[in-house]
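Severity: low
Component: inverse-folding endpoint
Summary: output formatting inconsistent between runs
Steps to reproduce: submit the following structure tokens with default settings.
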């Protein structure tokens, strides 16, 4: 069997959809990296807030001494659990079980509650 087809049909039917799907994959990857960068920046800002704005018993700010206050130590514990939960959620199977997303949400609620308690401090 012989076929007399032009390369245009082959290019339009296979190459263009392939290029567009690869481009869409890179756009999704770029969006995910941007979201992760925003999360990382926000978490670092919150960490610095707890680390530097806490006053010690002597009345000095946290940034004036090298000591870590109670709030910063508690935040370290919350962050360790939250980051572990986020990693488990992102590396888990898809579709992710609902409870894995709830665990991440609960960690963020815990962080928000800590920030609310710290505000008058």
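Observed output (run 2 of 3):
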């Amino acid at each position: 069997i012989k076929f007399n087809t032009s390369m245009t049909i082959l290019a339009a039917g296979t190459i263009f959809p392939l290029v567009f799907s690869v481009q869409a994959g890179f756009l999704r990857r770029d969006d995910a990296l941007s979201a992760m960068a925003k999360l990382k920046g926000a978490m670092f800002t919150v960490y610095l807030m707890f680390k530097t704005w806490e006053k010690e018993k002597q009345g000095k700010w946290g940034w004036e001494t090298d000591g870590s206050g109670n709030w910063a130590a508690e935040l370290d514990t919350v962050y360790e659990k939250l980051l572990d939960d986020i990693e488990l959620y992102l590396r888990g199977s898809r579709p992710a079980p609902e409870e894995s997303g709830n665990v991440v949400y609960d960690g963020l609620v815990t962080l928000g509650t800590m920030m609310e308690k710290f505000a008058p401090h």
